[in-house]
Design goal:
heterodimer, A: 885 residues, mainly alpha, Arc Repressor Mutant, subunit A, three-stranded antiparallel beta sheet, B: 183 residues, alpha+beta, Ubiquitin Conjugating Enzyme, four-stranded antiparallel beta sheet, 6 helices, 4 strands, 36% helix, ubl conjugation pathway (chain B), Ub_conjugating_enzyme (chain B), transferase (chain B), UBQ-conjugating_AS (chain B)
Chain lengths: 885, 183
Amino acid sequence: MSIEKLNLRKKRVFDSVFGAPALSLPTPVATPVGGFTTPGQAFGGPAVFTHDRRQAPLSDVRTARGARDIVEVPLSESDHVRHQVRWDRAWHTVTHALVPPDIPSRPEQIEEWNPELVEPNEAFLEAIRDVLDPKTRLPYATHTEDIILWHTNHVRYHFLQQVLPYIQGLSDDGDAAELLFKVIKLLRAAHRPVVCRYVFAILAVPNVAGSQTPTVPVESIASEQSRAGLINLVELLKEVGLAGEGFQITFAEVMNEAMTEYVNRSCKGIWSLEDVKAQEQYNNQVRQGRKSDTGTGMVLPRTALHSPASQTVTNLCKWIENGYARLAVEVFHTLGDSRAFPWRQVEMWKEMGIGHLGSLRTNELFNIVVNWPHSSAALDDLRTAITTPQRRLHLTEVFSQTMGEHLLHPGASTLQILQTYISMISSFHALDHSKVLLDRVAYPLQLYLCSREDTVRIIITGLLADTEDAEGNPIAPGGDKLVELALLLNKGEGQVEQKSSDDELDWDDADWMPDPIDAGPGYKRSKNADILGTLIGVLGSQEVFIKEFQNIIGEHLLKSEGPFEKEIKVLDLLKIRFGEAPLQSCEVMLKDIQDSGRLNSAIRRYKKLDPSEEEINIAHAKLDMRDIRDDGDMVPEGMLKPSLHAKILSRLYWPQLHHESYRVPDEIGHLQKLYENGFETLKASRKLTWLHALGQATVELELTDRTITEEVHTWQAAVIWSFQSEDQGDVNVHRSVGELVERLEMDEALVRSALRFWANKLILQEDERDVFSVLETLNQEDRARSNAQAAASAAAAAGDGLDDAAALVADEGITAEKGQMYWQFIRGMLKNSSSQMLLGQIAMMLKMLIAEGFPYSNEELQGFLGRKVSEGELEFVGGKYRLKK
Amino acid sequence: MNYEMEDTQNSAPGSLPPAQAAKLGAPRRAADAQSTTKRLQTELMQLMTSSAPGISAFPSADGNLLSWTATIEGPDDTPYAGLTFKLSFAFPSNYPYAPPTVLFKTPIYHPNVDFSGRICLDILKDKWTAAYNIQTVLLSLQSLLGEPNNASPLNGEAAELWDKDAVEFKRKVLSRHRDIDDE
């Protein structure tokens, strides 16, 4: 009771805010229908009814009829009153009949609770006719209401007040299916056949609950039981009349959702064949020996037949045919739709399923590409699914967007981007041989890569990278180099198809396909993915590429001995791309090195620089004695006296070589003289110029307690050489930086870098600031450090070397040779264009006019101009530079 | 040096250094803007790396490669010794297939140059070939200062004086010469 009161109060509050519904509550039986008289009407007129009031209108049809009879009798009464009364009467009859019965408060009772349905009798029908159509039947009734609205409202009210709490009470216990049955029962109870379509307003709830059921087969646990459950439900629904259009819509929606869900759940992230197999196995287990599926070809829809279907697509189609379509057909039959189920429908479902799969894969595409080559199955899926130009367009759009978000930002390293690009080329090639898709997505990537300065260098070092480490194990891609490229090169990729005549068709090509429909005007077909070609051709101009290649190859050639197979291979590749002429200097460089090998031995033989027999014997004896781990690359000669091997370069063809000079140790100097003589006798008209700063030296250091062999730069060797004590007296030699700079005539930065190098090796120590001495013996602590550092410093040394090289370049700023040319430009500029110019103007002009580019910053240029000012060639007046008159 | 002189004077395409040959040879199409600027850039680089004495040229300060300014120093043993002359070069878009328009900016008293700076020189007119370049034009102009072509004068008085009265000619040259200081 109190709850009722509370509800009433609630309702009052609600009504005060939102306004009470303009509908009357069901007319209570006791209410006198004609209780009110219309104004101007004498009381007692309709008093005839009074005796009827006490009887239930439903139970006494005659009363209603009688009432009408009576109403018709008094002639003096106006039609208004008559009609109004009749309306009121009918309203009462109908509303009373339609009031939903209260649900028993105790849940146990609900099972046997079967409220008596009011059989619609004649009186009721008459009444409802009146109520439904008062306009024509009772034209004079002034006070009428819409019964439909009333009923809707009332059913809703009833549902909220009684049914819903009951359902909520139920949802705590029991599984969904049971709940559903209860709900249905309840609904059936609440149902009135008369206005069944209004009840559909309620159906929102059973459908929400119902959506649980069809998703059961989604998880492919489509056991017969739940299927039966569903069918049962549908039957029940049909029985209660809920299986109308609305239910069918809902069912269709649920089925659609089910397909999407299925695709998402069963295919997401399953990209490789193994994954697919595993998934399939799982599915088979789940299906528990359902009868084996029909042949693959039969399963697929016709549209997917033109290309070999992927496993996932086949699985999906099987599912649609065996699970999805079956369920749908069964439900349809249960619903009594006996029309033959068109097979085309199943085909359409399959296409839809593939479409869903396609969009899923499209969204995943970026990750698929990144996972190449472990994601080929996913690409197969995509190939099956992407059949229309619209889908292709969508695919490229989505991919470009993802790529832009995930890859083309400063956080991604160029190496990473290039790796992705390589996977992109391969995977898009697998997806679409025509390259149209790739071209569409690759453009922003290429543009971005062109803005990265190190792109070309990474590509070339990648090409030249070792594919096997020292022990012969293949190096896995993913290190700090693009080993992928070297692997591809070794595999013989990059062989360009020679017949690139795009005008002529290859008449013998049996697999010819027309150009894709969405190919651009500049479309060129090509058969292979041609990763190397794309990377070389697209990123960076030819000049940049060749220059970079020259630099890197130069470094390689100088640093190492060997047949340089890789270099030759890459050179050949580039030659195919760019033609012979631009790569001439690289060719010469390579030839230089090969020639100098021969020349070297010739000169050494001629000048008797090679060790004699007995010298070798002595060396060997020494070797045995000291039991040095013989690396094999130690020249016996080196044990006794310094040996010299030279590489002879043709100056004009080599890229910028470092010209730093310093005084080489006398012994080496002497050897160089000898060598020079030898060379000049062999090649009469040519002269040797030594480049001291380049090259490698193998240094063996004998210290009191240890012997160390190191492969170092020549200038590092020169520095350590100067620590050699001249007299054999065992005094520790101390050298300061300044002293070394003077002695070696070497650049201070270089000296410092060399000292740092040796100090890291624990061969030198810094006694005081800038003064170093040899660390002849290591104490315990140092020794431990040495061992610990051995590994670390090996790595660090590599880094150090790079730093040193960088220092070598950076210290130069604008090099002398280049500077001369720049100076010409600046002079020409100031002489002709404008007699005085700002720094920025000069920099801009240089950048614009020098074909090979002006790579220096404004600060570097300022330094350069500053030097010219101090040399007296320029004047700096009022912020502008001008030539000194 | 030797090497560079060679490629400016032996102007037959075959003798061009490989780099330049490639550049000129690659786009065989009619001269488009791209190849014109490329050619001018190459010429600039040549001028800068192998400057002949007494002449220099450079694109104008606004960075338009089609408009250059050049400077010629008057050769010794001529009335123009010690003087410098500025010239303007305007290159047509189909350069080098058409000659540049060359004008003296510095007022000059010369038989083959009129008072507005126009020059009468056959290689800038009908004798032009694509093998000429800025450097050859400047060298020709420099030699024109010492050896005017009095057969077809633009300045009749100067042509007459050149033969008759060297002192007066020199005076006229000096009085006409005025160093122009741009901006």
